[in-house]
């Protein structure tokens, strides 16, 4: 039944192809700017010291076993996750209108939300389309298509300013049908590194309220972006404050460096009126969806995160670790911009320091990206996205000089 017409050969994931090519390159000064994971100043993976500590506590715990977690996950983990994203004093939590399920990292949370919307939101809004930014994390496309939600995009990146195309975004939302679903990156937009300002978020909320549109926040970089957990959660909290009913996908891959442990959380926030009653019904259906998808979420990563989230001193240490990661990335942004300006590389480079988080949309063309790879062994995605975590004090000047050469 699986002939070529039925199961055609799929195109290779461009990121995996890039990784394989980098690995095979034997040049000693090669640079990986494709990687979506934090690297330390020696280009090595970094286990957060607080994670190592929590790991040791868990390993020494004689009572630890490998029993199933509840369907909704580790309760102390999901509870702490609510507080982390919504704020400990969030009225939505106090009013019991937040429902949270532990998921297979952020991807699983986006998927669970997509499945829930496809099954229930579509009942009263049969052709409701989910809009996401152009561009967005490539997986959004696949995840929402898999659950049969119609998808569309709103303009986001302005190639000229390498900043936000705010007018384009607003007019697209105004032009989208009422009750459309809108996917928003809570902070550190992937792949552009461009976030709305607080005033711009307010305007986005105003338009979405006017059009009764439904927000779905994807939050993969809280604390990793600015180094401040509250600052990075501002947009989500503002929408909740404004009384929106909404969904949140929360990932602990980047901010805890728990990539492979798949620790994440999905939240439904009910409306300000009768929210707890709705939340109760929603919880019952989410449990059924979760059961059929994964039965029970994986325990170890959530246990590590939970220890850090629930212990005052580990939490403070985590915040310091977050500042180490975000601080190093901010320093690399400054160093790259500084060197490009010093070399008088044609064009403007202020966007490098204005963008935030793991990624930067450099504005380099596909041809320039190809030349960087063939001439200088520097690897990045074709769209000119650079992972700032791949830069360090040993290679940033080399990268700037290579960029300077291909741009001149
Ligand atoms: N959403 C966005 C925008 C992301 O950048 C990522 C990480 N690449 C994720 C979700 C989820 O990643 P993970 O499943 O590893 O948590």
UniProtKB/TrEMBL annotation:
<dbReference type="InterPro" id="IPR004838">
    <property type="entry name" value="NHTrfase_class1_PyrdxlP-BS"/>
</dbReference>
<dbReference type="GO" id="GO:0004069">
    <property type="term" value="F:L-aspartate:2-oxoglutarate aminotransferase activity"/>
</dbReference>
<dbReference type="InterPro" id="IPR015422">
    <property type="entry name" value="PyrdxlP-dep_Trfase_small"/>
</dbReference>
<keyword id="KW-0663">Pyridoxal phosphate</keyword>
<dbReference type="InterPro" id="IPR000796">
    <property type="entry name" value="Asp_trans"/>
</dbReference>
<dbReference type="InterPro" id="IPR015424">
    <property type="entry name" value="PyrdxlP-dep_Trfase"/>
</dbReference>
<dbReference type="GO" id="GO:0006532">
    <property type="term" value="P:aspartate biosynthetic process"/>
</dbReference>
<dbReference type="GO" id="GO:0030170">
    <property type="term" value="F:pyridoxal phosphate binding"/>
</dbReference>
<keyword id="KW-0808">Transferase</keyword>
<dbReference type="Pfam" id="PF00155">
    <property type="entry name" value="Aminotran_1_2"/>
</dbReference>
<dbReference type="InterPro" id="IPR015421">
    <property type="entry name" value="PyrdxlP-dep_Trfase_major"/>
</dbReference>
<feature type="domain" description="Aminotransferase class I/classII large">
    <location>
        <begin position="30"/>
        <end position="403"/>
    </location>
</feature>
<comment type="subunit">
    <text>Homodimer.</text>
</comment>
<dbReference type="GO" id="GO:0005829">
    <property type="term" value="C:cytosol"/>
</dbReference>
<keyword id="KW-0032">Aminotransferase</keyword>
<protein>
    <recommendedName>
        <fullName>Aspartate aminotransferase</fullName>
        <ecNumber>2.6.1.1</ecNumber>
    </recommendedName>
</protein>
<dbReference type="InterPro" id="IPR004839">
    <property type="entry name" value="Aminotransferase_I/II_large"/>
</dbReference>
<comment type="similarity">
    <text>Belongs to the class-I pyridoxal-phosphate-dependent aminotransferase family.</text>
</comment>
């Amino acid at each position: 039944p699986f002939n070529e017409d039925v199961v055609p050969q799929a195109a290779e994931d461009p990121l995996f192809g890039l990784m394989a090519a980098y690995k095979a390159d034997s040049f000693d000064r090669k640079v990986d700017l494709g990687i979506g994971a934090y690297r330390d100043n020696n280009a090595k993976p970094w286990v957060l010291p607080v994670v190592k500590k929590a790991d040791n506590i868990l390993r020494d715990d004689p009572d630890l076993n490998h029993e199933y977690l509840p369907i909704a996950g580790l309760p102390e983990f999901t509870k702490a996750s609510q507080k982390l994203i919504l704020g400990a004093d969030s009225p939505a939590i106090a009013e019991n209108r937040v429902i949270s399920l532990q998921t297979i990292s952020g991807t699983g949370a986006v998927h669970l939300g997509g499945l829930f919307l496809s099954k229930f939101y579509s009942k009263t809004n049969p052709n409701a389309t989910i809009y996401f930014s152009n561009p967005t994390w490539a997986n959004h496309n696949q995840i929402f298509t898999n659950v049969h939600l119609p998808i569309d995009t709103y303009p986001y990146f302005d190639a000229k300013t390498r900043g936000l195309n705010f007018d384009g975004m607003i007019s697209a939302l105004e032009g989208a049908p009422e009750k459309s679903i809108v996917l928003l990156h809570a902070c550190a937009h992937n792949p552009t590194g461009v976030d709305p300002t607080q005033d711009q978020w307010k305007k986005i909320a105003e338009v979405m309220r006017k059009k009764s549109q439904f927000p779905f926040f994807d939050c993969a970089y809280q604390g990793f972006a600015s180094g401040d957990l509250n600052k990075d959660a501002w947009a989500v909290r503002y929408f909740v404050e404004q009384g929106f009913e909404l969904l949140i996908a929360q990932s602990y891959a980047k901010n805890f460096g728990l990539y492979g442990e798949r620790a994440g959380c999905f939240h439904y926030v009910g409306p300000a009126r009768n929210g707890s009653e709705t939340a109760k019904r929603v919880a019952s259906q989410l449990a059924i969806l979760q059961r059929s998808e994964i039965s029970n979420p994986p325990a170890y990563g959530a246990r590590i995160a939970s220890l850090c989230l629930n212990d005052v001193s580990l939490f403070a240490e985590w915040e310091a670790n977050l500042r180490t990661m975000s601080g190093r990335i901010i320093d690399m942004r400054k160093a790259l911009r500084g060197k490009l300006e010093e070399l008088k590389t044609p064009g403007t480079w202020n966007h490098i320091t204005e963008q935030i988080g793991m990624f930067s949309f450099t504005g380099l063309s596909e041809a320039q990206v190809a030349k960087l790879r063939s001439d200088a062994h520097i690897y990045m995605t074709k769209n000119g996205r650079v992972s700032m975590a791949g830069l360090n004090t040993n290679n940033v000047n080399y990268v700037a000089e290579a960029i300077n050469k291909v741009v001149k």
